[in-house]
Amino acid sequence: MKKAFSFISFLFICLISFDGYSQKALPKGSLFIIGGGARSQKLITKMIETANFLPNDYIVVLPMASKEPDTAFKYIDLQFKAATDKKVIKLDFDSSSINNPDKLSLLYSAKLIYIPGGDQSRFMKVVLHTKVYDAIHFAYQNGSTIAGTSAGAAVMSKYMITGKQLKDTIYKETFNKLWKNNIEFQEGLGLLDSTIIEQHFIKRSRYNRLLSALDANPTFDCIGIDESTALIVNQKTASVAGESQVIRFSNMETDGLTKDDKLIKFKDVKMSLYTNGDKFVIK
Hints:
The protein is an alpha/beta fold and 283 residues long. The protein is built from eight helices and 14 strands.
């Protein structure tokens, strides 16, 4: 009886160890993160190539960030149909359908999941810690491409920039102050756990927002993606595609500076600027 108990205990420990290992395994899928603005057909074609479809694969669109989900789906559907003959399915989840087994089954098995723009907080309010959230993670871990533009880009991060300032009630496209503890984050999808994404970056001059994000998370990569440009992530390798640029702030150094509780300051920060075809390693 004692031997049997020992064997069962050993098996249980092995299962726990295997589960812990599987959770740390790098995802087999890719991220295709567009900074917003016009989605060129060339970018859509690149997205289709990244998804690497097999014969029975299909695309799912999750339009919950948009105030007009039907319109958001209509335009991306036209672009997908111009680039591939794969089936495109709209899954517009809400509180009444978040646990719908038929819709969830389609999401779990989708080879490409696309999240259009709108309001990233609206999207996460529907999705956060639901079976939809789990299905997106499952698909990504098992080889699917998760793509998004604008709000659909922001949700990729563990700590998602909402765009709101905590110390200023008036919304601004970019912050006009570099204040400590001013940037609001909400929990995103967490497909990137040590990288924060900012969208429309160069077009809307969001440098102050991204530096505020880095000050709040100095060990992270903070990456701004411009419009009509994509960051493609495969495990820890990121590559750039599109018409404009991707900027990265990282390695903030504050050693030796006196503390300031109100204003952001740092001694040094690494800034990198990338264009189409460039590759780099993310955290």
